[in-house]
Amino acid sequence: MQSTAFFSARHLPSAAPPVRVRAVFTNPSTATDGNNSMAASSGPKWAQKTITLPPQRRGCHLVTSKIMKEIGPDLSEFKCGLAHLFLHHTSASLTINENYDSDVRSDTETFLNKIVPEGRSAPWTHTLEGPDDMPAHIKSSMFGCSLTIPITNGKLNMGTWQGIWLCEHRDSPTPRTVVITLNGI
Amino acid sequence: MQSTAFFSARHLPSAAPPVRVRAVFTNPSTATDGNNSMAASSGPKWAQKTITLPPQRRGCHLVTSKIMKEIGPDLSEFKCGLAHLFLHHTSASLTINENYDSDVRSDTETFLNKIVPEGRSAPWTHTLEGPDDMPAHIKSSMFGCSLTIPITNGKLNMGTWQGIWLCEHRDSPTPRTVVITLNGI
Amino acid sequence: MQSTAFFSARHLPSAAPPVRVRAVFTNPSTATDGNNSMAASSGPKWAQKTITLPPQRRGCHLVTSKIMKEIGPDLSEFKCGLAHLFLHHTSASLTINENYDSDVRSDTETFLNKIVPEGRSAPWTHTLEGPDDMPAHIKSSMFGCSLTIPITNGKLNMGTWQGIWLCEHRDSPTPRTVVITLNGI
């Protein structure tokens, strides 16, 4: 007991600066009620999981619920943190966009096909893997292959209309691997 | 005292590997002078804050100073870390680009309007929310809705000419919500 | 001894929730064999390093090996974490794309030049720094200036065909500065 009480006592002065912004700060020293093991329990945590998204036809797909099914229970362990999603592929992409009207997703696919030429009209040298491959690589770099989303009180902290999209840029559907890393307290 | 001294003693061997790369590593065990409460004070901290950026007209806007006014004092608590900015919207975007000549921002808006057709010439199915809505969604995925910026010695570690831009893609200005998460030591 | 044993004992109950997802969780309390100093050794670590990539001609360049030469030894200290790369410039970009056929990189450069007009045909107002400057700024925001990549067992956890590209958008090659931040356990 003595030692624990003493250790807690030593914490307080060091926690002073964060306390100045207590409203926004949460850290092992400010998050604790002064009980040492509580401080330990609210210490930084890391979670990492590799999931596979099922094959999807070429186009943009809302996958928020598929992702949540995989990480929901893990997310609930975090009061404050960040969720990082990393797609293991160079011919698909991850982006955040509207979660309601599916027309937004089909119009986005229309746009991507409009600005990245494919087939005869295309100037590509890399054609060995099919006419849709080089355009897929370009679209992947345009939207990117990773997302970082804030975690607040055990949930992804996104806007009302935001959802996670997997954009499949190849013609033939294939399973897509995503490494998900959670970090927080 | 005994317990604290003993606890510190237990730390030292465990800190050995990081010490090999002491120049670049900073962590609770290497950052401490061996004093337990100091180690606690330099332990990982998390801060999360939701801010509102005022309505801006359609176009690209430099918001670095607005962001700094909100997080400056919090940033000063971090020697090393990452700042994550997450926009809660699908018709605006956050990007990092030139912080000096406003022509760079207006030319970027010119580019976005040039490659994303709007109005009669546009092939969009999603038109219910106005002719500027579907183009806004596409532009949002092109530039993205989040940024991660390194923190070094209490400041955002950006290049001399880099600034944070909020790109408003809708015609009617609205306040925009940004969740800012700081993590570091 | 008493105090340390007692401190460990206090840890166990607090670690209970993470243990529920032990398979994916790794954190100071679950990663330990119950030995306090082990827990300390697997505690969160931060590393931050500023590197310079050598001048490259305009175009897309695979720089994975150059980056690994700089951070390989540091990475090996992390069982689980995230690597963040931040380019200090607004006329170049970082992206992840195919690491094998160099045609993919030259075709991507062809695409960028195709959709961002340059010279007489270009509508830009910002021309003081040369005809390639404004297009370079736009391309930088299209692909972005930063990357976040998962770290697993001391290595960057990328897909088989993924590599890190530095895209140089200016005509005259210049050294490019990248701030690399590693965070994990």
UniProtKB/TrEMBL annotation, chains A, B, C:
PROSITE patterns assigned to the protein according to its UniProt record, in alphabetical order: UPF0047
- InterPro entries recorded for this chain? UPF0047_YjbQ-like, YjbQ-like_sf
NCBIfam families given in the database record: TIGR00149_YjbQ
Q: What is the protein named?
A: Uncharacterized protein
- Organism in which the protein naturally occurs: Trapa incisa
